[in-house]
Design a protein that fits this description.
This protein is of the alpha+beta class. The chain has four helices and four strands, in the order E-E-H-H-H-E-E-H. Helix 2 packs across helix 3.
Amino acid sequence: MSHLWGFTVPVSSSGRRKWPDALRAKAVQTILAGAGIRETAEEIGANKSLVALWVKKAGTSGKNPAFVEVVAPVAQPPSASPHVNGPEAASSTSCRISIGAAAVEILLGYPADHLVEVLRAVRAAQ
């Protein structure tokens, strides 16, 4: 047996560990709070792919959706309405994405791989 983060982790005769659910939950919570998967895995002596699997499974069973709906803006003719400044402004060169209480405005041409990371971070922070 070994002790990690205040939890007892049973170890079989073959050396395999049986990770307690509470320790798994704490590891996932630590990662969602901003710690890295690799660093967390190293701290508890687990394989990083196993810890990544814990995070993935926790995300699909949580209250957050497994997807984020993105709706492209509809371009309006210039004479359709006066220009509005402020958070309610709509632009044909940007897209506004709302996730819970957060709103993210993305400019046309923003790199898709960066957008994925931004959306993951916003969703994880909620």
